[in-house]
Amino acid sequence: MSRVTPSAEEPAEEDTDAADLLTVTDLTDEVRVLDERPRYHLGTCTWLDARPTLGLPVSEARQLGFTPCAGCRPDETLAARHRAART
Question: Is 29 in contact with 68 (CB distance < 8 Å)?
Answer without folding.
Answer: no
